[in-house]
Amino acid sequence: MPTNLPRLMGMPAAATALRCVWPVGAVLGEGLCWSPGSQALWWVDILARRLYRYRPADGSQASWQFDEEISAVAERQGAPGLIVTLRRGFALFDPEAAAGSGAAARYLHQPPEEPVGNRFNDGKCDSGGRFWGGTMDFDCEAPTGALYRYTADGRCVRHGLGFAVTNGPTWSADGRTMLVNDTVRGRVWAFDADPATGEISGQREWLRLSPGDGLPDGMTTDAAGRLWLAHWGGACVSCHDPVSGAELGRITLPTAHITNCSFGGADLRTLFITSARFGLSDAQLAEQPLAGGLFAVELDATGLPAGKFGG
After folding, report:
1. Is residue 9 situated within a structural domain?
2. How many domains, the chain?
3. Residue 290 · residue 23 · CB < 8 Å
4. Domain extent for 84
5. Has this prediction a pTM greater than 0.85?
6. What is the DSSP string of 193-262?
7. Binning pLDDT at 50, 70 and 90, where does residue 2 land?
8. Catalytic machinery residues
9. What is the pLDDT of residue 218?
10. Is residue 91 part of a domain?
11. Average model confidence (pLDDT) for the chain?
12. Domain presence at residue 10
């Protein structure tokens, strides 16, 4: 038997049972971001155009209604408020200054080369304060999705990936590998990443889901480098070894369309998970009453702090 193969990590144990902490019935839940300062979780319902905040310590809930799709969220490093991706690009939004419906966000940049039939989708900040936002075809068919890197000084770099739906990204524990999901084709791609500059290169296939196993949606990594992957249509979050990509185990959920996952809580040991009602028939919705809910489970694993935008 070969002795030079990397030893697989183990699947972290669950310290609590999975629970639905907010059965809000999101059309398309996404965009998780944990705030250590406020001990709260930010997340969105893209198609309902709504931003949510959940505080697990007391269970408090708040929401803000937008006039267009809001798809991803990150905190700012040196100023109050958030950077978000809206339908056409990157914007600033201060929840404390907004009230009522039609929350006002200020666009920072709308990439002029982005096709009219596209919208922004998943995204997050890296450890260097750069916000990465992916785009997708509204109809999830045309391979027009790209990945944009937006920096605090207003520079925006486009990486044309040719995906119909771009999800992620996330990074290895050392920040030297970036993973991005080609959702419609069921693949996770890896890139070499330079943490100092944000430059990426060396695209290669890292993981391919089996037919019938759902599609790779949002994802996160823990402090040990393990990948946690939400399965659209697969009713689960899977955990993968950081070297081989081998599946270590799964968290099964009571609804099919699992959209994203992220660590949070006071000790970064709670895995929060979003889901969606979109695409489910009336019969399926009747069988899956928690579809679109926000879920949580405490694990024997520690997450990485969410990156903050440098501006």
Report:
1. no
2. 1
3. yes
4. 19-298
5. yes
6. E-TTT--EEEEEEEEEPPTTS-EEEEEEEBTT--EEEEEETTTEEEEE-TTT--EEEEEE-SSSBEEEEE
7. very low
8. 217
9. 98
10. yes
11. 95
12. no
Identify which of 30, 32, 121 has the alpha carbon closest to the alpha carbon of residue 75. Answer: 32
* Inter-residue contact 31 to 69 (CB < 8 Å): no
Q: Could you tell me the maximum CA-CA distance found in the chain, to the nearest angstrom?
A: 64
In the predicted model, what is the mean pLDDT of residues 214-223? Answer: 98
The whole-number average pLDDT for the span 110-138 is 97
Confidence of residue 12 (pLDDT cuts 50, 70, 90): very high
**Vertex 240 angle, CA 145 and 211, to 5°:** 60
> Under a CB-based contact definition with an 8 Å cutoff, are residues 207 and 239 in contact?
no
Q: What is the mean pLDDT of residues 20-33?
A: 98
Q: What local confidence, expressed as pLDDT, does residue 97 receive?
A: 86
Q: Say how far apart CA 153 and CA 21 lie, in whole Å.
A: 38
Distance CA 120, CA 171 (A): 20
Specify the CATH number for the domain of residue 215: 2.120.10.30
